[in-house]
Design goal:
The chain is α/β, with parallel strands linked by helices. It is built from 16 helices and 15 strands. It folds into 2 domains: 232 residues, 3-Layer(aba) Sandwich (Aspartate Aminotransferase, domain 2); 131 residues, Aspartate Aminotransferase, domain 1. The strands form 4 sheets. A 7-stranded mixed beta sheet has the order 4-10-9-8-7-5-6, sandwiched between helices. It has a 4-stranded antiparallel beta sheet with strand order 11-12-15-14, with helices on one face. The chain is globular and about 60 Å long. The termini are close together. Its cofactor is pyridoxal 5'-phosphate.
């Protein structure tokens, strides 16, 4: 059953309670490889469900527009101080509701409509909010996109520099949503400094790896950092903006009153809890285990003939191009879900297929590492992925069902926060 127990919810609304219980069971029985997902601790779950959700707190600690903030202010200050300690930054704002609003606040802080922003193209692994044309950030600002080399799947920083010199953006994003390799923050900083742009590091996917010392930090290179608080950081669904002291005022004004009203205090408390966990030695071990599992899984997939974008991974994320397997990403992802392996179909660089029916799969190892799976399990996970893809091509649903049963049997030995 769900933990903490939801007895009051079950009594008041059994329909919703039943769906929540089913979701918890589903998460327990699946090998969850969606790169942006994780399991939060029971402590984070409890903080998210507290009476703090009853309180409205427009403004910042010590400068609120409503009374009754005697206990909310210390909670937000704890979250801020823990963020500053974990990431080594001068300033942190823990109020953004999610990653996309946090990124939009960056635009509001530094750009006027129509000015130039530069970010990684979405098909190359960037994020919608880095100026892609279907996003408000691509409609309200002049967007210039960089990509990756076709032969290596890696960013060519010489080409990035040439593009920046030609286009003179006021803002440059580094980071994204499907980047399996280490981001070269010093090189991006050198380019940004040369053209007089503000460099923003979007670390939403790798924040937990940075906090645990398993990925280089952008601190000291990017004066502005945006991140979600879930994914590898293993917190609630929220976001943070971090920066040098120089940009603190502009960012704070952009978040409130620029884009938001009152912060979600229950989420702020859960962020503080997650940051407290991230500051402990065992979190560093966890972050390094995520990378070790990803590398082991990538190697096992390559051995089974899978084509990985850039050839492998340096972090938690793997991007597979399924073209040589004779199957598109969407049917493969749906078959894998039936087999008990949850991931997402995804475009790959230079993908000839449409985004809703792309050639690739994106997967990550944060959640399975939280469950306790280690490098010794990754060859078997790769085998199950390979067998499922073959079964889908052959119309062999019996194999898919067999794998789902084997996965449930394996995961019975690995506890999940939120389910007992």
């Amino acid at each position: 059953m769900h933990q903490p127990a939801i007895t009051e919810l079950a009594a008041a609304d059994p329909e919703i309670a039943g769906l929540v219980e089913q979701e918890a069971k589903r998460q327990y029985e699946k090998i969850r490889l969606i790169a942006s997902e994780n399991y939060v601790s029971t402590a984070v779950l409890e903080a998210t469900g507290t009476v703090l959700t009853n309180k409205y707190s427009e403004g910042y600690a010590g400068k609120r527009y409503y009374e009754g903030q005697q206990l909310v202010d210390p909670i937000e200050n704890l979250a801020i101080e823990r963020a500053k300690s974990v990431f080594g930054v001068e300033h942190a704002n823990v109020q953004p509701y999610s990653g996309s609003p946090a990124n939009l606040a960056v635009y509001l802080a530094f750009l006027q409509p129509g000015e130039t922003v530069m970010g990684m193209a979405l098909p190359a692994g960037g994020h919608l909010t880095h100026g892609w044309n279907v996003s408000a950030t691509g409609k309200w600002f002049r967007s210039v996109a960089y990509g990756v080399r076709k032969d290596t799947g890696l960013v060519d920083l010489d080409e990035v520099r040439e593009l920046a010199l030609a286009e003179r953006p006021k803002l440059i994003w580094c980071g994204g949503t499907a980047i399996p390799r280490t981001i070269d923050y010093p090189a991006f900083a050198e380019i940004a400094n040369e053209v007089g742009a503000v460099l923003v590091a979007d670390i939403a996917h790798i924040a937990g790896l940075i906090a645990g010392g398993a990925h280089p930090s952008p601190v000291g290179h990017a004066p502005v950092i945006s991140t979600t608080t879930h994914k590898t950081l293993r917190g609630p669904r929220g976001a943070m903006l971090m920066s040098t002291a120089e940009h603190a005022k502009a960012l704070d004004k952009a978040v409130f009153p620029g884009l938001q009203g009152g912060p979600h205090n229950h989420t702020t408390a859960a962020i503080a809890v997650a940051l407290g966990e991230a500051g402990k030695p065992e979190f560093s071990a966890y972050a390094h285990a995520i990378v070790a599992n990803a590398k082991a899984l990538a190697e096992a997939l390559v051995e089974r003939g899978f084509d990985l974008v850039s050839g492998g991974t340096d972090n938690h994320l793997i991007l597979i191009d399924l073209t040589n397997k004779g199957i598109a990403g969407k049917p493969a992802a749906k078959a894998l879900d039936r087999a008990g392996i949850e991931l997402n179909y995804n475009s790959v660089p230079f993908d000839p297929r449409k985004p809703f029916d792309p050639s690739g799969l994106r997967l990550g190892t944060a959640a399975i590492t939280t469950r306790g799976l280690g490098t010794e399990h990754m060859a078997k996970v790769a085998e199950w992925i390979d067998q499922t893809v073959q079964a889908e091509n052959a119309g062999d649903e019996a194999t898919v069902e067999r794998i789902a049963g084997e996965i449930r049997e394996l995961l019975d030995g690995y506890p999940m926060p939120g389910w007992a």
